[in-house]
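Quick note —
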Amino acid sequence: MPGPRPARRSSALSAAGGGQPRRFIDLFCGIGGFRMAFERLGAQCVFSSDWDKFSRETYTANFGETPCGDIRAVAAEEVPAHDILCGGFPCQPFSLAGVSKKKSLGRSHGFDDARQGNLFFEIARLLKHHRPAAFVLENVKNLQSHDQGRTFGVIHRTLTEELGYTVHHRIIDARAWVPQHRERIFLVGFREPRGFSFPVPPPQGPVLRSILERNPPDKYILTDKLWQYLLGYAAKHAARGNGFGCSVFDGAGVARTLSARYYKDGSEILISRGAGCNPRRLTPRECARLMGYPDSYQIPVSDTQAYRQFGNSVAVPVVAALAESVMAALDGPTCSPDENPAELSMVPAHGASPQPVAVPLGRT
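Predicted structure written out below.
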């Protein structure tokens, strides 16, 4: 599957830096989706950080450098100066699945999640110290409605009122760029107001068939035991009126959202092998393609870790389109907030954002 379309290389040059490439940092970098998108535009990564050792292994294999570990242990002055801060801060404290699981276990979620919930404030700490010209943040769309909107309100006020950035946000569905229904919220901020617009999605996205391998190994075929279990589990929940189900796709449409739990049973995206045959999981390479990574991208870890990593990743072509818009805004003049009213202030949850697309359970 081809990678993100390259943008004008000149857009990555910093006028303030005498024509030098714009510098960015890659926080909570995972396996480098942000980095791949921005580097394709000619920007230069000067710092990366992630606490997961397996993600760092994959990042190192593909970018030739090992990210720092826990960003909380890094002093702000140790992070190099940069023009753009990028970060897909951990989403589990805010995702629907993550919140539901934590509630069932009696655990805290959102900002009260001691391990992951307060990592947004590490971003705020670095923004306050370095004052980069722009930032791009990503999270699950439920961030906007978590705790009845209070969580997002804190984030928005921190970025705008406390740090003085002009903030734009929108929920973007990756299905226009990759064959996957994947809604994520993106927050784009500028130190000085800019004439920024979110990218216009392509009119027609790819279909699932375009990322499938021709002859995947048989080990990805579901066993009779697992397949019967999934069918029975789906039937039990359907009888109760619950939404759980396993989805089997024939390749003509788009997949459901690839999640970090895919390694468990693959139930959210199974590939049909024809009538009377058990379906199969996606291979790690197909998951990479589903997230917009090129086939040259190396996968040095186990299948379990690869599924987790791609399920947690950003969709590279979406970030590439956003990066191009950010670069274009930085190339342009500053403006007063009144000159760009449509993109400032808070976007209603069901206003300018793409509407959710219902993906039927069962055979698709």
